From TrEMBL:
Keywords: Membrane, Transmembrane, Transmembrane helix. Pfam families: MamF_MmsF. The keyword Membrane applies. This is Tic20 family protein. It comes from the Bacteria. The keyword Transferase does not apply. InterPro entries: MamF_MmsF. Coiled coil: none annotated. The chain crosses the membrane at residues 23-49, 70-89, 95-119. It is found in: Membrane.
């Protein structure tokens, strides 16, 4: 799920800290506003916007954190509004609802722990990529040329 790759230069200590913080920003938002999926995405968007003009390493990791949050945002939003309709309207909680919520919890736990691991590795100077979102980030950023 998480791979370590080479970046085209060795980042400085301040870059490592800012890149690591891009992942931690979404985790802080989870703790602060767990039931609202928009808060995680907004935290990543604001951190990304604040670091748009930063170095390639920081920009790449801010983009990966944003893309990974965007990937979960739609699933979390569907689960949130489905739960609201079950609690406050005449919608019934079916087996499909419980299966979706359990799957959603598992995906969010995987993402939570993956984000902790990747933030730690980036802080140590290792350029790490998520399985699916790293490839998308490479297409978006084009700041890390593949070194073979």
């Amino acid at each position: 799920m998480i791979t370590t790759a080479k970046f085209n230069y060795q980042p400085h200590e301040s870059e490592l800290e800012r890149a690591s913080n891009s992942y931690l920003m979404s985790l802080v938002a989870v703790i602060g506003g767990l039931p609202l999926p928009i808060l995680n995405l907004m935290a990543s968007i604001f951190f990304y916007l604040g670091n748009r003009k930063s170095t390639a390493f920081v920009k790449w990791h801010c983009t990966q954190a944003l893309v990974s949050q965007l990937g979960l945002f739609f699933f979390n939003s569907a689960g949130f509004w489905w739960t609201v309709s079950v609690l406050f309207y005449d919608e019934t909680a079916t087996n499909y609802y419980f299966a979706y919520i359990i799957t959603l919890v598992i995906f969010n736990l995987i993402e939570f722990f993956s984000t902790l691991i990747i933030a730690t590795k980036v802080r140590k100077g290792q350029h790490t990529e998520f399985f699916f979102f790293g490839d998308i980030t490479n297409l978006i950023c084009k700041t890390n040329e593949d070194i073979k």
